[in-house]
Amino acid sequence: MEEIQVPPYFICPISLEMMKDPVTISTGITYDRENIEKWIFSAKNNSCPATKQSLTCIELTPNVTLRRLIQSWCTINASHGIERFPTPKPPVSKPQIIKLLKEAKSPKMLMNSLKRLRSIASENDANKRCMESAGAMEFLASIINNNNNLNEVFEEEEGFMSTKDEALSILYQLKLSENGLRSLIMSGNGEFIESLTLVMQHGSYESRAYAVMLMKDMFEVSTPTLLLSLKQEFFTQVVQVLRDEISQKAMKASLQVLVNACPFGRNRVKAAEAGAIRVLVDLLLDSSEKRVCEFMLVLLDQICQSAEGRAELLNHPGGLAIVSKKILRVSKVGSERAIKILHSISKFSSTPSVVQEMLSLGVVAKLCLVLQVDCGSKEMMKDPVTISTGITYDRENIEKWIFSAKNNTCPATKQSLTCIELTPNVTLRRFIQSWCTINASHGIERFPTPKPPVSKPQIIKLLKEAKSPKMQMKSLKRLRSIASENDANKRCMESAGAMEFLASIINNNNNLNEVFEEEEGFMSTKDEALSILYQLKLSENGLRSLIMSGNGEFIESLTLVMQHGSYESRAYAVMLMKDMFEVSTPTLLLSLKQEFFTQVVQVLRDEISQKAMKASLQVLVYACPFGRSSESGEASN
């Protein structure tokens, strides 16, 4: 029997399966409810999966007509084994939830109402959002906050304890929006955090797990103000949840809560005093799950940035041993954090006995074999530098990651970089060099101390020298050499004003025909300046500055280069223009002149190089949608 084909407009664009409950979002695209709810509410995406447009609202409108068409098609094709699905149950309405919350205010109806709320929340994400908007969050929080005569409640009134447990489990199950979580944080001047602390202290295992998991969600959107005001009892109870190993989820949540809290104020000290170090070391001894070990090492690193934390680690008989053991056995993140812990110990808490213990554990040998960014291969670092997230990489690899690939995150932790400064890790580099010397008999060659990147004052001095006609060509060649060494030098040159200086040489178009025809030396400096400027791979801000300089003067200068320059200069001009147009505004693109299009098309026609051809095409693609640019392109053809 021939297989029946489902009409394409019955297919959900996300799952590629036939829709059973089609709903339309604000962009006009229809999806199956279950899939689009996961996309928007669970994955927290704010765009249409198909069109990538931002969603103006997150309301899901049932597409009843399409659903009936699909059901009819199923009925017609029943003989082919197509089963007609039942009409989906509509999501709960806001008035229904409000009515249920009113009923729940009666002590007799409270437990039944809570069970009904739990059932509604478990059906779908739309119900969760409806419950949140109807005030369920505030009502459930008020039950959890009811801490009057707490010991009596927990010891004698099992029914009331049961309602608190139920309210907490529903509140966690709701998967509140960021605004909802922030409202919980701000409510009652931190009252809700204290209530959750009491639940962790007195509640059942299940309630304690829900409390710490809800806290984890809250801390992900909290402000430093809240995290600075956390009390010692809070840390004591979170560490106790960690110690009790209630569940894998609760353990991960406890670790994340502490990782989010410890960077602020005296929280590292509070965590150390709560016994976090001892618990973490004991757990690391038995734990083999990669993600959990990573969190533990990150947390250990944070706490060991305090004197109290380092003292606790050194007091534990297996503290240094387990940290050293985890190097190269967990992941890149784990290795880097373990190294940071050992670095903190050796820098701030080094004693003869500590040094002896580290030597006996083979710490130096371990430090020399760190996983690198370069395609996941194991390579020994020759010029270790530490970035803003605290992770150390080899300079060459991290420069490629940040400057060439234009990534703004830490490769290991995926955290955003607060700045792109690379701090030389001299201690680790010396460790590695010493290890190489010790192991020379095994064929390990000691690498030389790396040459430091160029400094801003050096570039400024060179630019001053370049203003002398006699020194200009020599200075430009030196600048080209410096730029070719590494990406850090390129950034330094840009910040020191090299971009503006090079642009001024290119913009010097006085008596241009004479210059190009008779003054070969001056033409050579213009070529050199243009090649260096392209080689710098300017930042977006740098490219925008070029665009804005002199009211479009630089674009005209590049047009003249494309008209009169050598093949190489024309290629550099159009490739630099391509980079500029990627960050330009419509205002610039609307003001482009006919001669500009004539010269870009000529570069395309001459097929100077594959790169120049691609750049010319991209320049025209960027420019043509604006104003009369498409007509200019036709005129130049």
From TrEMBL:
Protein's pathway: Protein modification; protein ubiquitination
Catalytic activity, as annotated: S-ubiquitinyl-[E2 ubiquitin-conjugating enzyme]-L-cysteine + [acceptor protein]-L-lysine = [E2 ubiquitin-conjugating enzyme]-L-cysteine + N(6)-ubiquitinyl-[acceptor protein]-L-lysine
InterPro entries, alphabetized: ARM-like (IPR011989), ARM-type_fold (IPR016024), ARM_PUB (IPR058678), PUB22/23/24-like (IPR045185), RING-Ubox_PUB (IPR045210), Ubox_domain (IPR003613), Znf_RING/FYVE/PHD (IPR013083)
GO biological process, one term: protein ubiquitination
GO molecular function: ubiquitin protein ligase activity
This enzyme's EC code(s): 2.3.2.27
PROSITE patterns xref list: U_BOX
Signal peptide: none
Organism: Solanum commersonii (Commerson's wild potato)
Transferase in keyword set: yes
Alphabetic keyword roster: Transferase, Ubl conjugation pathway
Function in brief: Functions as an E3 ubiquitin ligase.
PANTHER family per the UniProt record, alphabetical: E3 UBIQUITIN-PROTEIN LIGASE PUB23 (PTHR22849:SF132), WDSAM1 PROTEIN (PTHR22849)
U-box domain location: 5-80, 377-442
Enzyme class: transferase
Pfam families xref list: ARM_PUB (PF25598), U-box (PF04564)
Name of the protein: U-box domain-containing protein
